[in-house]
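Thread: "does anyone have the structure for this chain?"

Original post by V.I.:
We have the sequence but no experimental structure in hand. Need at least a predicted one for the grant figures.
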Amino acid sequence: MLIGITGTNGAGKGTVVDYLVNTKKFAHYSVREFLIAEIKKRGMVADRPAMREVANDLRKQYGPSYVVEALIEKAKQETGNVVVESIRTIGEAELLKSKGALLWAVDADRKTRYERTLKRWSETDKIDFEQFCVYEDREMQSTEPWDMNVFAVMQMADHVFQNNGTPEELFQQVEQALAKA
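Reply from O.Q.:
Generated one for you, tokens below.
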């Protein structure tokens, strides 16, 4: 089984991935980790603007699904189920669907998501709420094929998880989606 995970920032994509990895033994491939490695190769600071700049540069240069293609190529060595985390472009979603993958989306209330990012406090999360909203709005609806359009990708999802509750409630939703797969 191949599952792509999309969703809004801080919604719980990583929580779903951790659940799949720890309880269902999925192998995990991360767009974020791929991009951070590329950012570091370029000698840049791994913040949100750099993530977008590098991702867009790679997608312009090699095609709108390049990053996910590279991760799927790495995943070919796996013998079990695979989850690819953070699908952000229509091209990436279309590639996954063409490979028979499921596409799952995770969403939650914006303020709740921001509070989660404060707790996570990764290198790309060190921003105030206003900037969080600016970045998110920009990432939600680009018309460029190589740029992020999380809203359109979420519309393509086979299942959307609403994660405004507890982790256990989210895990119940994951189990229900797996049962339908």
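V.I.: this helps a lot. The first helix runs from residue 13 to 24.
O.Q.: and Residues 113 and 169 are 16 Å apart (CA to CA).
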